[in-house]
Amino acid sequence: MSDNTLTITGNLADEVELRFTQSGIPVASFVVMQTKREKQGQDYVDGAKNGLRITVWRDQAENVAESIGKGDRVTVTGHLEPQQWQDRQSGDNRYGWELVADEVAVSLRWATAKPNKVNRRQRGGSFGGGQQGGYGQPQGAPQGGQEQGGDPWAGGGQGGGYDDPPF
To answer: What is the pLDDT of residues 137-159, one digit of tens each?
Structure first.
């Protein structure tokens, strides 16, 4: 992780764009917009707007593309990377920044989320969409942590298996 860690919260300016490199690695990009609110008398009005391009790689890129969309409020933590490109019209060099995301989360400041509605992907495997299930869950294991009457800790701790309590 880089020393220049940044966290930004704002709304997606547009839909997430998911692409794949020539070697098949997923990469998603989107712009997070922030609008400063200014009080004028008794009312608030929109002030200056600021946008920052976000880039997300690998499995997280696919997860982000499936989970968030235009207008959603998100919090992103990552590191800044300088960017350079040529202006298409003038040919002049342009400079800017992008935030390469380590974490992307939906903000719950003005929204709600339903409990137990997170679909987890198994780690490892291909880039083209993992299987549903918990991280590190053995093949053929019950989904959703529900076993023996809905108690995920059932099993009595006798077998030393993956579902035994850690204490």
So the answer is: 334 444 444 444 555 445 444 44
